[in-house]
Amino acid sequence: MAIKDYLRERFFPHMWCPGCGHGTILNSLLRAIEDLGLSKSNIVMTSGIGCSARISGYVDFHSLHTLHGRALAFATGVKLSKPELTVIVPMGDGDALAIGGNHFIHAARRNIDITAIVMNNRIYGMTGGQFSPLSGPGKKATTAPYMTIDNEFDVVELAKAAGATFVARSTAYHCQEATGYLKQAILHKGFSVVEILSQCPTHYGRKNKEGDAAAMLEIQRDTTARIGSKALDENPGLIPRGIFVDIEKPEYCEEYGKIIERATKRKAS
Ligand code: SF4
Ligand code: MG
């Protein structure tokens, strides 16, 4: 199946601003799905609200565009009722870790077999550039004209601590690397988190004087480094990219299936 077969072309052109990183991430995801040869009728995508969440409207999977921050809750219901389906949840930084923060940590704790993609552009793009839990201190936003003072979450550390069994980070600039991580995340049995740094030139870039999309992509290239690389050893202040966790633990739907089996046997006896 070719990439265009995974898209709902009647909904194009898309609504993203010129230079937005989200289209690149969609492309990385579709390349991963194409490489894996997955049938679109076996994929479910649930999304919440935000520029990132619009992805679910552009793909020809079973898709649900749901409530802000609640995509993982809907995804949990879908996965429990049809565990054989591949469930993918793209989220923005606010959607995943402010409004949806509780769903995020509890999905990770349960180790339910869902692939969560955190498209982190460090700002609420759709609603006009408010700061998010991933903006970090010293940043400008519509709601912080004199700079933010809030510390940010580290998505990788949060996902690890909450119990996610696959955790990776890449960027829109490193789109082929992101495709590789997404492939592994989809194949992984358990809760997988892939954080992909993205750019919002319209709000974050302008307000924080990071420039246009090309300049923001250069920042992604220059401020990150692969784990285990010489660059990261020599500059520990760089943001690490790579696979941080890849472990096996009992998966939630399988464990739940055992409970149903036990309860059914007990009822029959
Ligand atoms: Fe992308 Fe920002 Fe435009 Fe939203 S507002 S589409 S995140 S560039
Ligand atoms: Mg955002």
Automatic annotation (TrEMBL):
<dbReference type="GO" id="GO:0044281">
    <property type="term" value="P:small molecule metabolic process"/>
</dbReference>
<dbReference type="Pfam" id="PF02775">
    <property type="entry name" value="TPP_enzyme_C"/>
</dbReference>
<dbReference type="InterPro" id="IPR051457">
    <property type="entry name" value="2-oxoacid:Fd_oxidoreductase"/>
</dbReference>
<dbReference type="InterPro" id="IPR011766">
    <property type="entry name" value="TPP_enzyme_TPP-bd"/>
</dbReference>
<dbReference type="GO" id="GO:0047553">
    <property type="term" value="F:2-oxoglutarate synthase activity"/>
</dbReference>
<protein>
    <submittedName>
        <fullName>2-oxoglutarate ferredoxin oxidoreductase subunit beta</fullName>
        <ecNumber>1.2.7.11</ecNumber>
        <ecNumber>1.2.7.3</ecNumber>
    </submittedName>
</protein>
<dbReference type="GO" id="GO:0045333">
    <property type="term" value="P:cellular respiration"/>
</dbReference>
<keyword id="KW-0560">Oxidoreductase</keyword>
<dbReference type="GO" id="GO:0030976">
    <property type="term" value="F:thiamine pyrophosphate binding"/>
</dbReference>
<dbReference type="InterPro" id="IPR029061">
    <property type="entry name" value="THDP-binding"/>
</dbReference>
<feature type="domain" description="Thiamine pyrophosphate enzyme TPP-binding">
    <location>
        <begin position="49"/>
        <end position="196"/>
    </location>
</feature>
